[in-house]
Amino acid sequence: MKSTAFIFSSSPHGSSIGREGLDVALSFSLVTKKISFFFIDDGVLQLMLYQNPNLIHSHHHSLSFKIFLLYEIKGFFFCQRSAYQRGLKEDDNFIVPVKFLNSHCFLEQIKKYNFILKW
């Protein structure tokens, strides 16, 4: 079975791109478990646990990332540089367990996948 990497590079709120990527990933998870998620740039904000999108009249779609744990999909990777630039650290609380990778390892990990989709 082919593997798919989903790359998120946009913040979770302010546009629907993150929610749309999540919807596509949920659809893929029905037919394959070889899925991983990569977060770079503002995409690292997708998995912040303590968000309050109600202040901007938005829905907290990022909580839906938890469902992948039920499907035993556990590949969630942060670009370490992007996370650090936004004040995030490995010991912060995230919606799902996240592995921080330096830029080189981040790219090498992505190269292992047959398909790469960016949101």
Automatic annotation (TrEMBL):
List the Gene3D superfamilies. Answer: DsrEFH-like (3.40.1260.10)
InterPro entries recorded for this chain? DsrEFH-like, Sulphur_relay_DsrE/F-like, Sulphur_relay_TusC/DsrF
Read off the Pfam families from this record: DsrE (PF02635)
Q: Which PANTHER family match?
A: PROTEIN TUSC
The record ties this protein, via NCBIfam families, to: PRK00211.1 (NF001238), sulf_tusC_dsrF (TIGR03010)
- UniProt family annotation: Belongs to the DsrF/TusC family.
Q: What is this protein called?
A: Protein TusC
